[in-house]
Design brief:
The complex is a heterodimer of chains A (about 475) and B (about 110).
Chain A (H helix, E strand, L loop, with lengths): L20 H5 L9 E3 L18 H23 L5 E2 L10 E10 L6 H5 L20 E5 L4 E6 L11 E7 L7 E8 L17 E5 L11 H11 L6 H7 L2 E7 L11 H4 L2 H4 L5 H17 L3 E5 L29 E3 L4 E5 L2 E6 L2 H8 L6 H11 L29 E7 L3 E6 L5 E8 L1 H4 L1 E6 L4 E8 L13 E2 L2
Parallel strand pairs in A: 2-3, 5-7, 8-9, 9-10, 10-11, 13-14, 14-16
Antiparallel strand pairs in A: 1-12, 3-4, 3-6, 4-5, 6-7, 8-17, 12-13, 15-16, 17-18, 18-19
Chain B lengths: L17 H11 L4 H21 L11 H10 L6 H9 L4 H4 L9
The chains are: A alpha/beta (about 475), B mainly alpha (about 110).
Protein name (chain A): DNA polymerase delta subunit 2
Family (chain A): Belongs to the DNA polymerase delta/II small subunit family.
Keywords (chain A): DNA replication, Nucleus
Chain lengths: ~475, ~110
């Protein structure tokens, strides 16, 4: 626990009347940590961007890169006696292993053709929270062909995108379908062992601040800033706070309402004088960040509603948006997804869009289960580019998990949840969902020494009764 | 009554395209000097087109042939070395560099 269970009761609630001599001498230094960024595969230069390419390259790259890994996993699981066949080499009735990309055919999936049919006065598709139904079919695609999958594989818990190895046979009487007996994904990649850290070092994750929206919790946000900058709490608590080495602001720092989509459709002469909603919000965010950046390393990621590109990987928020905060070297604008290591602990995560997309297109309800599945599948965003916007890569698929992280997080989720996932080779990954601050006023602290995580909720209770004291509380 | 016909107002001159008849002759005899470079060019292009259409190396649209070749090599698919040599030789010529669908908006 970062803060002690029994804070000194004498200090709370009283004003400091006497300056004790000891208090002046207590200057707590923040612990330092090594930082390394592994984000290069997510970044691209403006001049190199070409959106005229087709997405077939991305799928081809994904399949070609993961095929050897899957062959190895398949042979480890089912032995060398069964051949690995491509779809055009299938022999009826022969048990074999096929490796390909999974595709889930969903009737209810929003389709551009159905949108176009609106012109013919047909009903447009309603927006639903989940687009899956019972009749969804799974199809396996390799480089040249595709085949229906039936048997021991559930369509409801699968999504389009991951590369899978299936074991089974094509029945003689039912050609065109592959009867699956078992299936597997790539082995969890190797994990560098975590270095032994003597002291506690914490990373604070906060997401979904959503400034500019109706739900913005500016007071609680200020409490968070005061806590991290060491202005809250008594000496014991300030000393504990000095162990926070980094703050990750994981997306959606601006609210959806600042996106102001209506003004896009209006004529220019109507919207000339109105300022964009995001301008004021970014100024407030800059004020927030300058306070944090003045004393701790801050990494700010873009989220779904932030002024960055819509497709994944989202590029860094531009430096010019934070004029005050950028004067500090401690502010880092980073990509979404974000891959980095602090003191040897490798951390990988996103602002939540891949997990939200998996929620829409599968039957899994628990967000942490979805996160665990993406780790099993070995891909940060399997539904990209099918239902999640993605840049048309052709040289490599940067979302493939090729090195196992120690901490794997998804931000902007509904609740805080965490679990340790143990891999077959002794890997330990902390799976973490960071809740939205605008809804829960909760941030998460992760201890790098032992991968324990702890939520901290900031609450304020201003009662209308004038006689009662207003006291901000800090929950553990 | 004159003996002139209406059609006389339009003078018809029969243009015998001598060049076409000549080239028809040259095409019938194999391997005469001006057309070897042409047919070599065509053979090269045929080789490159078949490289494009080999689906094992992945999709061919939207990227240059050299990029596709490097990608195939990176994944150990053993693309033919002759294709690589051709591409290095004519690195500036768009007919060699771009895939066969380059004129279409793919």
């Amino acid at each position: 626990m970062i803060y002690s269970d029994k804070p000194d009761p004498d200090g709370v609630g009283d004003f400091i009347t006497e300056q004790s001599e000891e208090a002046d001498n207590h200057v707590f230094c923040r612990s330092s940590s090594d930082y390394q960024e592994h984000n290069d595969r997510f970044k691209f230069k403006l001049k190199d961007r070409s959106f005229s390419r087709q997405y077939a390259h991305l799928y081809s790259e994904r399949l070609m890169t993961m095929r050897p890994k899957l062959s190895k996993a398949a042979q480890d699981k089912w032995g060398l006696e069964f051949p690995i066949r491509k779809l055009h080499e299938l022999v009826h009735g022969e048990k074999c292993i096929v490796i390909g990309t999974l595709f889930k055919h969903m009737e209810l999936r929003p389709s551009i053709l159905k949108e176009v049919s609106e012109e013919h006065n047909l009903m447009p598709q309603p927006i639903r929270s989940k687009y899956t139904e019972e009749n969804d079919i799974l199809i396996l695609e390799d480089e040249l062909q595709r085949i229906f999958l039936i048997g021991d594989i559930k369509a409801s818990t699968s999504v389009t995108g991951p590369v899978i190895a299936v074991f089974g046979k094509e029945p003689e009487n039912d050609a065109g379908k592959f009867y699956v007996e078992e299936y597997c994904f790539q082995h969890l990649p190797n994990q560098l062992p975590r270095p032994i850290i003597e002291n506690d070092r914490y990373i604070a994750f906060i997401s979904g601040i959503e400034i500019g929206g109706k739900q913005e919790k500016l007071f609680q946000l200020q409490l968070f800033i005061d806590l991290v900058t060491g202005q809250l709490g008594d000496e014991g608590q300030q000393k504990a706070t000095s162990q926070i080495v980094r703050v990750i602001v994981a997306g959606n720092s601006l609210s959806q309402s600042t996106q102001d989509k209506d003004s896009l459709n209006k004529a220019k002469y109507l919207t000339k004088k109105t300022a964009a909603g995001s301008v004021e919000a970014i100024k407030s965010l800059d004020d927030v960040l300058v306070q944090l950046a003045s004393c701790v390393d801050v990494d700010i990621m873009a989220g779904e509603f932030d002024p960055s590109n819509h497709t994944l990987p989202q590029q860094q928020l531009h430096r010019c948006m934070f004029p005050q905060a950028n004067s500090y070297q401690t502010l880092h604008n980073v990509t979404n997804p974000y891959d980095f290591s602090v003191s040897g602990v490798r951390i990988l995560g996103s602002s939540g869009q891949p997990i939200d997309d998996i929620y829409r297109y599968s039957d899994i309800d628990n967000r942490l289960d979805m996160l665990e599945k993406t780790l099993e599948w070995g891909h940060v965003a399997p539904t990209a580019p099918d239902t999640l916007g993605c840049y048309p890569f052709y040289k490599e698929d940067p979302f493939i998990i090729s090195e196992c992280p120690h901490v794997y997080f998804a931000a902007n989720q509904k609740d805080f949840d965490s679990r340790i996932h143990k891999g077959a080779d002794g890997q330990e990954v902390l799976l973490l969902t960071v809740p939205k601050f605008c809804e829960t006023s909760t941030c998460v602290l992760v201890n790098l020494r032992n991968l324990e995580c702890q939520p901290i909720t900031f609450d304020a209770n201003f009662s209308t009764d004038m006689s009662a004291d207003s006291s901000p509380e800090q929950d553990k | 009554m004159s003996n002139t016909l209406v059609t006389d107002t339009y003078k018809q001159t029969k243009r015998v395209s001598r060049s076409s008849s000549k080239s028809a002759d040259t095409k019938t005899c194999a391997d005469s000097a001006p057309s070897t470079s042409e047919s070599k060019f065509e053979r090269d292009i045929e080789l490159l087109k078949s490289f494009d259409l080999t689906l094992e190396y992945g999709p061919c649209t939207g990227i240059s042939r050299l990029e596709r070749w490097s990608r195939a090599e990176k994944h150990g698919l053993n693309p033919p070395q002759s294709v690589y040599n051709l591409l290095q030789l004519h690195a500036d010529d768009d007919n060699y560099k771009q895939n066969l669908w380059k004129d279409y908006d793919l």
